[in-house]
Amino acid sequence: MKRSESMTRRMVIALTSVVALSWLIASALGVMVMQDEFAEIFDSGVQETAERLLPLIADDLKERSPEDERHLVQPADGKEYLTYQLRDSEGEVLLRSRDGAYEPFDVPLTPGFADTATQRIYTVATEDGTLYLQMADAFANRREAIVEAGTALILPLLLLIPASIVAVILVVRRTLAPVQTLRDEIGRKDSGNMVPVDDTRLPKELNPIARSVNLLLERLRAALESERAFASNSAHELRTPIAGALAQAQRLQADIPREFAPRVAQIERSLSHLAQLAEKLLQMSRAEAGIGTSDVETDLLPIVGLVLEDIGRSDKGDDRIELHVPSGGKLRGMINGDAFGIVVRNLVENALIHSPAGTTVDVHVGDDNSLRVINDSPVIDPALLPKLTTRFTRGTTQATGSGLGLAIVKHLVKQMNGSLTLSSPAMGRDDGFEARVSLPGIKAG
């Protein structure tokens, strides 16, 4: 499954890329402009130097004797930025700078600029045309200046990129905070939390979403309430005719001849099974309607006692159920009391049905907000245990039942954000069956 990409990450990458690309483009344009401007500045510098230097060299040449070394006196260290040659009208080199070439520059003796492969040379002549001064500026010097200027523009990008990432993350997170809040609120909505989304602090771009979600929640709340009401009314309507038919069958068994008694007994058993199946189906319907959670915290311990007391009055539960509650034991949660009663009833009835007659079913309330129901039984194959929570699936037993009890319990416990664990043998025993319901932790206070 492809992982969803974060909006924040996408925006950080996009904005940082735009900033970096814009800076690079601006730097490239700046380098291009500087290249032209630097060329003009260098040319101007070479021209002015040559024009000012020629009269000085010409005067100095007049004062020198032919035996003097033909170069100007300069410091012994350092490298010349500009080099020159003083040539006569025949092209012979009369004087040169310390780093100047011995061979004449390969350019004509024509006033103005001329280029070689490595230098840009400016030629200036005396008024009488007898002397020519050629000032050379190496292209390497110009390239070095451009590279240094370009580097000065690009180097800040190394700091700009991480700074932009941090700034964009802070701005985007702050800007998208209402989206995060709306997402969290919608994510908490379920069948037990239908409170409308608070749209008073949302920006106007998110108001239509919040309004649509609230309308959807209202429709869903109405649908769930209708379904729950239907399930409750159906339970009452189905119990009445089945109970009436069962009573008529029991009365008929007392009035008919003895030879028809087995058939009437079979009818009675069928009606009893139908009543149990109808009750389980209605419980499953209510479970699927999402009745597991509640908006308020409920003390569930009295519900356990009430359900066990009711089951204890039946023939199967008479003197067979023992409740174990530790000192200060509590069982609480944001759970619908009616739904938890269905869980307890199904677990205990399942234990009574599938344990030998006369054995005890132990109900333990743990100090960790859990409920354990333990009954006697042979050890069940561990591979079969997960299948017992599937609808209409029963283990290797001759006991009657619909195969829906544990499926109903699993569905409701999941809605309660709890867990159902089945184990055989039971904890601390060599045999038996244990169903453990663990509920979310108790709220402080």
UniProtKB/TrEMBL annotation:
It is a multi-pass membrane protein. It holds the Pfam family HATPase_c. It is found in: Membrane. Keywords: ATP-binding, Kinase, Membrane, Nucleotide-binding, Phosphoprotein, Transferase, Transmembrane, Transmembrane helix, Two-component regulatory system. Its main location: membrane. One of its GO terms (cellular component) is plasma membrane. It is an enzyme of class 2 (transferase). GO terms for molecular function: ATP binding; phosphorelay sensor kinase activity. The keyword Transmembrane helix applies. The chain crosses the membrane at residues 152-172. Its EC number is 2.7.13.3. Residues 233-443 form the Histidine kinase domain. It catalyses: ATP + protein L-histidine = ADP + protein N-phospho-L-histidine. Residues 173-225 form the HAMP domain. PANTHER family: SENSOR HISTIDINE KINASE YKOH (PTHR45436), SENSOR PROTEIN QSEC (PTHR45436:SF14). This is histidine kinase. It comes from Agrobacterium bohemicum.
